Amino acid sequence: MSQDGALETLLHEDRVFRPLPQMVIEANANPQTLDNARRQAAEDPLAYWEEAAKELEWFKKWDKVLDESDAPFYKWFTGAKCNIVHNALDRHIKTGNKNKLAIIWEGEAGDSRKMTYFELYRAVNKFANALRSLGVQKGDRVMLYMPPLPETVIAMLATAKVGAIHTMVFAGFSAKAMRDRISDAQPKVIITADGFYRNGRAVHLKSLVDESLMGPDCDSVETVVVVHRANVQVEMQEARDLWYEELVRAESSESPTESMDSEDMLFLLYSSGTTGKPKGIVHTHGGYQVGINRTLNWVFDIKPTDIFWCTADAGWITGHSYVVYGPLIAGTTTVIFEGHPLYPQADRVWDLIAKYGVTVLYTAPTLVRMLMRFGTQYPKKHDLSSLRILGSVGEPINPEAWVWMYKNIGRSECPLVDTWWQTETGSIMISPLPVSVLKPGSCTKPLPAIEADVVDEKGNPVPPGKGGLLIIRKPWPSMVRTLFKDPERYKKTYWEKIPGVYLAGDMARKDEDGYIWIQGRSDDVMNIAGHRLGSAELESALVAHKAVAEAAAIGIPDKIKGEVAKAFVTLREGFDASDDMVKELKIHIRNELGPVAIVKTIEFRDKLPKTRSGKIMRRVLKAEELGQDVGDISTLED
Ligand code: PRX
Description:
Layout: H1 6-12, H2 21-26, H3 31-43, H4 45-53, E1 64-67, E2 75-78, E3 81-82, H5 84-88, E4 101-106, E5 112-116, H6 117-133, E6 141-145, H7 150-161, E7 165-168, H8 175-185, E8 189-193, E9 195-198, E10 201-204, H9 206-213, E11 223-227, E12 241-243, H10 244-249, E13 260-261, E14 265-271, E15 279-284, H11 285-299, E16 307-310, H12 317-330, E17 333-337, H13 348-356, E18 360-363, H14 365-372, H15 377-380, E19 389-392, H16 399-409, E20 416-418, E21 452-455, E22 467-472, H17 487-496, E23 502-510, E24 516-521, E25 525-528, E26 531-534, H18 535-543, E27 548-558, E28 562-571, H19 579-593, E29 599-604, H20 618-626
Parallel strand pairs: 4-17, 6-7, 6-8, 7-14, 8-11, 11-12, 16-17, 16-18, 18-19, 19-20, 28-29
Antiparallel strand pairs: 1-2, 3-13, 4-5, 9-10, 14-15, 21-22, 22-23, 23-24, 25-26, 27-28
The structure holds adenosine-5'-monophosphate-propyl ester.
Enzyme class: ligase
Domain AMP-binding enzyme C-terminal: 537-615
Organism: Desulfonatronum thiosulfatophilum
């Protein structure tokens, strides 16, 4: 099947897959647990969350589970004192986990590093002390522009340990994109690496930090800490730039963990929205840990012998929740891989699984489709028998990719859990457990206490089989608290379009069994290889080029990446619509946004379809492009 037909196949998919009896017997949460939890949560969701919170350690217990007095600015576990690092690290040092592997890291060239919980604890303490010596205090922002390295985890945890707020910028973003985030977040310190290896090449990072700091509004940055990785040439600016290794060398390996209010900010993560300005999504210490702990233990059924590999980069929410914090809170071993999954050849993923005995593989449909192209020759060469659970996230997984993975990687034995969630939700919201009955392409049902539904624009539930908007009716602990410096946008984007409920921005439908099938974004946000990119962001990057008068960007289906961007451009007087211009604009976009923004095609037009009030009608362009009915065009200019 082609990806273009994915939606159609989704509508007709009726295969079901059941768990092996052994899975059910041994599961952390079996179907009975799940049913009971659902029933309990339906009657008393707060009791459900309170019980989940009790699985963690708190310095002081909460007075109240949920404070709704300033809704939609919900507060969870108010009055409690905690620090996520205590649960992710400190407490393990006093248990049998102390000498267990926390991190298995492999570099692209095959070099490898392993760290036990105790080693990680000491490294985090040293860096926490170093951060304090740089003047970093509770509430300060620390920006990370890091490749996948153990130091990335160390830096995140050390920041949280001293009570500061980390804000990570994915290393595939440009200097310009980083500058925008610096000017919004105003970090005191930036942590980066000289470079890293990707696809056989050393990629420079530090030089991009230098470039971004040349811009305005970057005065907040006092120090840049640089981790040695790729031995590429870097220029160290005296008084500002410090090598990580030198900075931590003399520091003590003990460091106090700051006691935080449950609602104190843990991190800020920027994500694309419908305007040109990314949203600073705010998460906090208390509720976030409850959400990821529960989901890791139930959805991935974590056992003491597991080796957990989530292939996401720590720079995205999936990495925050399921590469770093979740696995460490659960006391499992998290695998981190630096390089490209097809380097040096298309069996790298299978090689890693076999080498380290990975038991749970959590990945993205894009990667599955990419690997599928090579058939089964590569997986067949490796012993994948350690695997027991597979997971998918980031975009709809087409049933063909699901079944391929299930059969060829999971031996038709490992459940493949399709997990729906977002940067805003913090942890998995709609997902099967490994003991659930699975339908390829459906993320099945909401987890207990998550009241998700599919509704029309007025908020009324739509009948089974009909598409509608995905909403969540009740707050949950790991939810976004606000948008950094923009509480109004938080209210407007999520809570006011359909008053009183959380609007996810996705289209979905429910089937007769109550299973949810996600269809894609309902707003002007594209999902390229599982990464969000706003049409408006791409358009503002394009119009920043001197030749471009106007631009409109839409997502079009792609066999591997799920979606890629196509841009329609009108040029200013005196510029030619040529192949060279296409090349120039593509380079320009890369400079503005970074390699994450993949624009497949640029088409030049004399004019773009607009409403009479001058708004570009992307939906008309999209319908034309896909050969669909353009719908209501009564507001079109001419
Ligand atoms: O459209 C949905 C899609 O990814 C969006 C969230 O993107 P982001 O905040 O970057 O977080 C991605 C990883 C959590 C959602 O609005 N999405 C995420 N998971 C799925 C999905 N679409 C379909 N199926 C999924 N399992």
